[in-house]
Amino acid sequence: WNIHLHKSLTQIKFNRSPIDPCLYTRTEPDGSTTNMAVVVDDMLIGTKNPKTINNIIKFLRTKYALTHQPKPTEFVKIKITYHENHDISISQKGFTNKILKTYNHQNCNGAKTPAEDRTKLKPTMTTENGIITRAKEPLHNEPWLKHYRPAVGQLIYLSYNTRPDITFAVQQVSQHLNSPSKPHWQAVKRIFQYLKHTLHRNHDIRFKGNTNKTELEIHCDASWASTHDRKSISGYYITVNNTLLYWRSKRQTVTAQSTTEAEYISTNESTKTGRWIQHIYNTQNIHTPITITNT
Which of 63, 191, 216, 237 is at 20 to 30 A from 269, Cα to Cα? Predict the structure, then answer.
């Protein structure tokens, strides 16, 4: 399917971005750029001229059966809201509610934070002859075990797209997909409780339309030797025009020997992401400087 779609888009002079294979761009006769984001069989088109979209849809209908929303309100489970001054906000309240219903937490008691304070989740361990080793097999008789992976997967998707406030907590539970134990599942349910508590709050991420500010601001930090095996955790977020654009919480793959080294690793990881975003802007002929702050 993707190969066939790619051939169709190249026929109307779209170019696949070398930075992101899901992004296609085309330069119009007036010098403007048309962008198309492709996620499997969902496509989102952005351009200045509505006639351009109509021509693209007309062509694609000669190849595929498709439905067209002139002003889309949802894309890959992300709600899109339009405001004055060409502002756009995204949210996932419906998807959040679906997660809670799937795991029977729609009526649970809420929690004010997504994780217990100062709680460190450790791998499932067994003791053999006084030697502590990681368990090779999880406890298959636990009824919650079949829900752990799909629940964490849905939480990852939610945290990556619209909920930076649960990113660290989700990163913690995602470290134990192969051999989860009861405390790990309790940590997942704690995230559910937090989502329930914040379900009716405004967690929209709003992008400003009428602005020429494109400077990327990277803010990064690291917690040194904070995991059970003394690995550090990087945390960073990237803004453009004071709007969140990207965020991550990630366990570092090497063991930092000092807080300084952990901070350097975090700075390196966040800078690579910033450069990736900068390259995407460059494909639009938009100059995008980068500033980095390590706290």
Answer: 191
